[in-house]
Amino acid sequence: xxxxxxxxxxxxxxxxxxxxxxxxxxxxxxxxxxxxxxxxxxxxxxxxxxxxxxxxxxxxxxxxxxxxxxxxxxxxxxxxxxxxxxxxxxxxxxxxxxxxxxxxxxxxxxxxxxxxxxxxxxxxxxxxxxxxxxxxxxxxxxxxxxxxxxxxxxxxxxxxxxxxxxxxxxxxxxxxxxxxxxxxxxxxxxxxxxxxxxxxxxxxxxxxxxxxxxxxxxxxxxxxxxxxxxxxxxxxx
Length: 237
Fold this sequence. Notes:
The protein is of the alpha+beta class. Helix content is 23%, strand content 27%. The protein is built from five helices and eleven strands; from the N terminus they run αβββββββαβααβββα. The chain has a six-stranded antiparallel barrel with strand order 1-2-5-4-3-6. Strands 8-7-9-10-11 form a five-stranded mixed β-sheet, sandwiched between helices. A hairpin with a 2-residue loop joins strand 9 and strand 10 (176-181).
């Protein structure tokens, strides 16, 4: 009976995964930094890309888009330079967004960076959110170690999102989990999926290395004393 209840609990969380669906539409009333879409009732903070079609076979990403406001009548979008595939050795695309271009919102929302306190929480998240791709936190820990940066910041997480082509960050707390859009840094979803004993956590989040080193002559104290408090504050940056 106990195993059945656990299975039903996992299935309930899986079915209730709250991440907004990826949607496709077109933009109009385009200015240098704004556009309108007929896509309705979206979550403010959802980000995505604007795609320009040159002909039937050639397309390019020409901008990033973030939902500023949305109603039953449509959505207002903020446009900015797309940084997800930047390659300094290649010329940048000069095409600007224009009326009729395609917008894809909730872009890469199936790829998630999980920030969780311990292994039990990570396994719980993987089982409950198995319709999403949760990359292993070791990958983020390795990047932080390479940069001699033992404490995650908003900028280091966003950099990881760009490098690994991730759409969301999952922060897992004692009273539920938040999904933060990597681009807008806005919360776009919440689930009741709770961390397993967040008071007992690996510094600075769950990973399988011994530790994440700082600089050779850096004697700063990077200890996070309260996991929930630190990452709740980071969410609000």
